[in-house]
Amino acid sequence: MKKLYTAVVTATGGRRGQVKSDDGIIDMKLSLPEGLGGQGGSTNPEQLFAAGYSACFQSALLVVAGKHHERLDPASTVTAHVDLNQKDDGGYALSVKLAVALKGVDKDKARQMVDEAHQICPYSIGTRGNVDVELEVL
């Protein structure tokens, strides 16, 4: 495998701490979501994961669209819903729903493109077999 890029982000203080990238572009306070007893007002690991997954998946869709000789409407979106779940054994797990709206694309064609993007998206590949991922075509 040929390495293309390495992102470097350091976390301090866990879910109530700080994350900072080596280039300083990301420098954010973290907090527990209000739904978990936190004060809110800051981001959390699930939001950051959702941001990365949705952006990566949309890029995969652009690759797939090109192979199908389709141009995606710039208003097309990928919304990632990332759930933090507590398992029966007391452990934790993530689950994801990707809601994809491909403006101006027939629903069957959109479903095909979403399925193909799920096969090539690095986040989808990395989570396969470890995280339940639901694909919703709007």
The tally of domains stands at 2
**Structural class by helix and strand composition:** alpha+beta
CATH architecture descriptor text of the largest domain: 2-Layer Sandwich
Any idea what the shape is? globular
| Count of DSSP H/I helices | 3
Unreliably modeled segments: none
CATH topology of the largest domain: GMP Synthetase, Chain A, domain 3
The named CATH superfamily of the largest domain: K homology (KH) domain
Most strands sheet? 3 strands, antiparallel
- Percentage of residues in DSSP E strands: 25-35%
Order of helices and strands: EEEHEEHHE
* Proportion in helices: 25-40%
Straight-line distance between termini: 35 Å
Mean pLDDT: 96
Strand arrangement in the largest pleated sheet:
1-2-3
CATH hierarchy class name of the largest domain: Alpha Beta
- Tally of DSSP β-strands: 6
Output the radius of gyration.
17 Å
